[in-house]
Amino acid sequence: MRQYLLTMYQPDGEPPPPEILGPIMERVAALRREMEEAGALVHTAGLYPPSAATVVRPADGEVLITDGPFAEAREHIGGFTLLRANDLDAALDWAGRLASITTLPIEVRPVREHPPHDQDVTNQPS
Predict the structure, then answer these.
(1) Where are the domains of the chain?
(2) How far is the C-alpha of 73 from the C-alpha of 109, rounded, in Å?
(3) Average pLDDT of 21-45?
(4) Which of 15, 44, 50, 57 could serve as 69's disulfide partner, Cβ 3.0–4.6 Å?
(5) The predicted structure's pLDDT at residue 49
(6) How many CB atoms lie within 10 A of CB 8?
């Protein structure tokens, strides 16, 4: 089984009020349990807001460490789920269910296995 990363994008700003967010989180927890029972869930986590981020980047032979997100944007990565699925269609099914519950866009990407050094790593997975 291949692994897929489901990345959840959420708008910047305050989260919805508890009366809206509470039922959403209950449905997300139910979907998480279903993923676990199906043997699909590897790991899932929410992230702190971009203001809690630290960026490390190379610059002129040095390493610069700065607070905050890498780029200004109207949305940010709010959480992720790493799952196992037989194929992309199965991963897209889980992602579609998650997107429907959260009303947020979910990016789905296959996780690359450690390829041999002579393998062309620019090719899409088959």
Answers:
(1) 2-110
(2) 21
(3) 97
(4) 50
(5) 86
(6) 23
Residue 41 φ then ψ, to 5°? -80, 125
* Distant-in-sequence, close-in-space partners of 69: CB < 8 Å, separation ≥ 6: 50, 53, 55, 76
Residues 6+ apart with CB under 8 A from 110: 2, 3, 4, 5, 88, 91, 125
- Residue found by looking up tokens 């450690």 in the block: 114
Q: pTM value? A: 0.82
Query: Which CATH architecture describes the domain 2-110?
Result: 2-Layer Sandwich (3.30)
Looking at residue 69, what is its pLDDT?
66
- Coil, strand, or helix at residue 20? helix
CB < 8 Å & 24+ apart, contacts of 117-120: none
Tally of CA atoms within 13 A in the half-sphere of 83 that contains its CB: 30
Q: What element of type H or E holds 28?
A: helix 18-37
- Token representation of residue 64: 């610069």
The pLDDT assigned to 100 comes to 97
Q: Is the pLDDT of residue 120 over 60?
A: no
Residue 71 is encoded by which pair of tokens? 């780029």
